[in-house]
Amino acid sequence: MRKYILLNILLWTILFPVTARGNNGQERTINILYTGNLNGELEPCGCSPKTDFGGVARLSGYIAENRKALSPYLLIDAGNFAGDDTPQGRLKAETLLQAFSAMKYDLTAFQKNEMKFADDFLSSLIERYKIPVVSNTHHYKLSISKTKYTLNMHISADPGDHEINQLNILLTDLPLSVSKEMQGWDVIINSSGEILEEPFSLNNTIIVTGYPKGKKLGILTLHIDNNGRITGFKHRWQPLGTDIKEDKKVRQILNDYDSRVAGLLKETERPLKETSYLGVAKCAECHQPFIDIWKKTGHAKAFLSLEKAGKSSDPECLKCHTVGFGEEGGFYSIATTPGLANVQCEVCHGTGRDHLMNFYKPLEHVTEAVCLRCHTKDKSPDFSYKDYLEKVIH
Ligand code: HEC
Ligand code: HEC
Ligand code: HEC
Ligand code: HEC
């Protein structure tokens, strides 16, 4: 190999004595586009413009739109793309692999999160979506050696497994502090969930981290000499905001996911029960003026927001956009419990059953803690109790 390279240099120097360096495939650049620690995030919820970043449809759209400028590139996920091993979590893991496959990811890694899932489930996904996987457990390939753009690469999930004369890339979710001690790697893509805003570079190793929940795409540009050595690098984050056009094919994959999630609810369709929540229609019998005010607030349109987003049957959204989803006697589905859609009176005041027995028995006192159950940093970054209360007080 080395002999061949030397010969090649000689040849090019003779043929093109001036332009030989930095040209003709000898010194080149390659982009590593990477994600890591998506943690089951298929797309952002859209609860706030400030946190509306990420999502695989935008990711795919960005790459498609900029393919020329990004090429040649490798597209790699460093693992922890899956979230929890629940029925919905399994759908998410599958949907992400399906999306990776549609985007032609070169590789993904199975790390701690993926290991929560059953082996045969994971194997069936690899088979179905034909996506190369490395993992630091005995069930899967530890590493993959491949040649792309005439560059020999060794991509591995095992910190001790680097090779000679290859571009060595490690995908790991060990803590950053541990990654920084590792030697023999050209590039380490870390998916521990920690964030390095700038790459960490020491002893010829460049360490980058996947941006949690895929809010930004990492782009590491490597300059590589004719011996396959890295001579320099650049790094930038590409935020995936609403300005980025979604890829239609991946959008369709996400829409299919939404239908399958809706199916999860149907599969376990519950019989109607005497509910513990009364619903706003009941309160309206005696508190009409309050209802009129409430109707003008965002809370009264919370379910509509889900419908517009195609997520009106997604348990992960329902818990904050309805009354008591997941509780006995709370919202279940729009078909079975239409009266409990939206963020209603009882979300803040507590269930009204006892109140009907005795109007003077005080209901739950409404405090800031009640709001914070839903107005979290991620979903409502602008939340301030004083300002928000003003908008809903009646
Ligand atoms: C932890 C609670 C919580 C969860 C879970 C949640 N939301 Fe929200 N959502 C909120 C809150 C709170 C707001 C209002 C944010 C604000 O204005 O400060 C909001 C606002 C929104 C809005 C903006 C409405 C508008 O017109 O301004 C949309 C759309 C939305 N959510 C969709 C979703 C979807 C889709 C999901 C599930 C993927 C979801 N939400 C899950 C709490 C939640
Ligand atoms: C049959 C009539 C009736 C219905 C139905 C009713 N209330 Fe009341 N409510 C009253 C009366 C009467 C009072 C006490 C007098 C007052 O302050 O107006 C009261 C007081 C309250 C108060 C203020 C006192 C406190 O305990 O903090 C809240 C809050 C309240 N109701 C919420 C609700 C909610 C929520 C519902 C629906 C689940 C509801 N009510 C349904 C009649 C009703
Ligand atoms: C059960 C979850 C939940 C609770 C509890 C909750 N909210 Fe909300 N809130 C929401 C959701 C969801 C939205 C977004 C509605 C939509 O889709 O437009 C919202 C929207 C709002 C908005 C409208 C934002 C805007 O600018 O349009 C205000 C204001 C607000 N909430 C204040 C409060 C306050 C104050 C409290 C506590 C006293 C509170 N909320 C408790 C879920 C909740
Ligand atoms: C976002 C939370 C929230 C929602 C939703 C909400 N309230 Fe309230 N409500 C409050 C707060 C906060 C107060 C102030 C008193 C307190 O601290 O309990 C209040 C006070 C009241 C009072 C007592 C008013 C007084 O003058 O003492 C009544 C009655 C009441 N709400 C009824 C309703 C009814 C009916 C609905 C549904 C249409 C509703 N509320 C929805 C938060 C909410």
Written account of the structure:
By secondary structure, this protein is an alpha/beta fold. It has two domains: 19-249, Metallo-dependent phosphatases (Purple Acid Phosphatase, chain A, domain 2, 4-Layer Sandwich); 275-392, Orthogonal Bundle (Flavocytochrome C3, Chain A, domain 2). It has helices at residues 2-15, 56-65, 67-70, 87-102, 119-129, 176-179, 248-267, 280-295, 302-308, 315-321, 345-349, 353-357, 368-372, 385-392, and strands at 28-35, 73-77, 108-110, 133-135, 143-148, 151-156, 167-172, 187-190, 200-202, 205-209, 216-224, 230-239. The strands form three sheets. A six-stranded mixed beta sheet has the order 5-6-7-8-10-9, with no helix packed on it. A hairpin with a 5-residue loop joins strand 11 (216-224) and strand 12 (230-239). The longest helix has 20 residues, at 248-267. It is elongated and about 80 Å long. The N and C termini lie far apart (78 Å). Bound molecules: heme C (HEC) (4 copies). Residues 280, 283, 287, 290-291, 294, 299, 343-345, 347-349, 365-366, 392, 394 line the site of one heme C (HEC).
The CATH architecture name of the largest domain reads 4-Layer Sandwich
Order of helices and strands: HEHHEHEHEEEEHEEEEEHHHHHHHH
What ligands can be seen in this structure? heme C
Largest sheet descriptor: 6 strands, mixed
Q: Which class best fits the helix and strand makeup?
A: alpha/beta
Mean pLDDT over the residues: 91
Beta-strand content: 15-25%
- CATH hierarchy, class of the largest domain: Alpha Beta
Low-confidence stretches: 9-25
